[in-house]
Each structure stands twice: as structure tokens, then as C-alpha cells.
Queue: 2 jobs
Job 1
Amino acid sequence: MAQRLALQRLLSLPARGPLASHGRTFGTSGGRRSTFNVQDGSDFQDRVVNSPKPVVVDFHAQWCGPCKILGPRLEKLVAKLEGKVLMAKVDIDDHTDLAIEYEVSAVPTVLAMKNGDVVDKFVGIKDEDQLEAFLKKLIGA
């Protein structure tokens, strides 16, 4: 378990060095990625609840077919916003406590959070137009 957490933390760090430009990257702001995987409860508190920027929280699972469609679609739209909003990915199998705390009863569940508060939410898959409207409402555009 400790090795898996260490590997997850390593994989969530931004790429550096001469090969960095060859990897898949997302929009950055101040050297940080727009999309990140939540590591634990304190990471969620630091990077989501205490974030000065709005955060979209994608509660998903590896076994969830619709999650595999929604996740990349949402990541692409968040990256287009170039740091105006962040995206936190929470695997419900790894972080059951967060799923329970935020009353996630089905996946995918997406929360919109501002200043640590849930301001909007949807469950299930959405098309790109619906996702754009959801994100624009969150950032006030």
C-alpha cells in the first residue's frame, strides 16, 4: 500500500527534464497541473477544500464504463480553461471515506466546489456542451 501511494505521488508530479515535452500534459498554472489525483484526505483538504480556485471533483472508479468516457472529456475541457479551474480525480475504491462524506452514491459523480463548498453537482455522463455550461457556471463566465 505504501509503495502504491508513493508511486501515485510520483506519477502525479509534473514532468521535468529533457523528455518532459514528450509526455501528456495538461494546462498549467505556476508549474502545477490543472488535473490531479487526490492522494488522501489531507491532500483533498489542501488542494480542493482550501483551493483559491474553483475545483471540479470527479468521483470515479476503475471498473466504471461511463467514468472512462466522462473523465477524459472533462479533463480536456478543464485544460482548455488554462488554470481558471482545477480538476481533482477521486477514485471511490481508494477513498471511500471521501465518497461517503460527499454523499456519492453512484459514479461518475462530479462536484463543483468554490471556497470549500459544493456549489453544483451532477451524476452520470454529460456531453461536451453540457460540461462546458457546467464549467462556465462554476467560473462565472
Job 2
Amino acid sequence: VANEGGKHWTVNEVRALIRIWSDKNIQQQLEGTVRNKRIFEQVASRLQKFGIDRDWKQCRTKYKNLKHEYKSVKSAQDSGSTSKSMKFFNELDAILGHCAMEQASKSDNDESERPPEWTEAKSEKDSIG
């Protein structure tokens, strides 16, 4: 299926994209923003060093498609279905799987959600007593 990105991505091109995407620095930048043209321009220029000629839009489209496919396979697996699979699932799971886990553990951690006034008030009480 040829999308607006033009020619198909080869296995090596996708591997290179995933390798760049797995860079912690890139991941942090992508997590923190929706307007990510600049980040994908970086990704495209790094791909060029591998001899892969893709512009930032193609990189972003491929990233979004991979992420979408990963999520649909992951949710199918979570619901017990093994019929869905994808080529780069393990590589993406290494990147996206931990993101989901971090998100979950963040919401489980009540400590961070306490307003700072509580801890301050507690220490004042201790010093009075």
C-alpha cells in the first residue's frame, strides 16, 4: 500500500528508523510534544547518514503507522488474541512497552500527587510537638 510517503520502506530502512527512535533522547523529545517537525527533521538527517533518503514527513508518517500498528497488536495480545502480529513488534515493544509501563507506574505512585503543602504542614507539626 503506497501512501503519500511515496515508495515503500525497506526492512533496513525501518530498522534504521527504529534504531534512531530507540535513542532515549529522541524518545523523550517525542513524548513531550505534539508539534514534532523539528524532531523528525533530526531523525531524517540521521537516516541520511545511513544512506537512507527520507524527509521528515515520511519519517513521521512511518513512525505514526508503526506506533498505531504496535498498539493494535499489543491490545489484541492483552485481550488474549494471538492472531495479530507485526514484523517489528519486539523492537517496538522494547521502546513503547516501557513507556506504557512508566505511565502506569507514575499513576500508581500517590506520593508525587500530594500537594507540597501537606508535607510542609507535617514538618511544622513535628517541630511543635
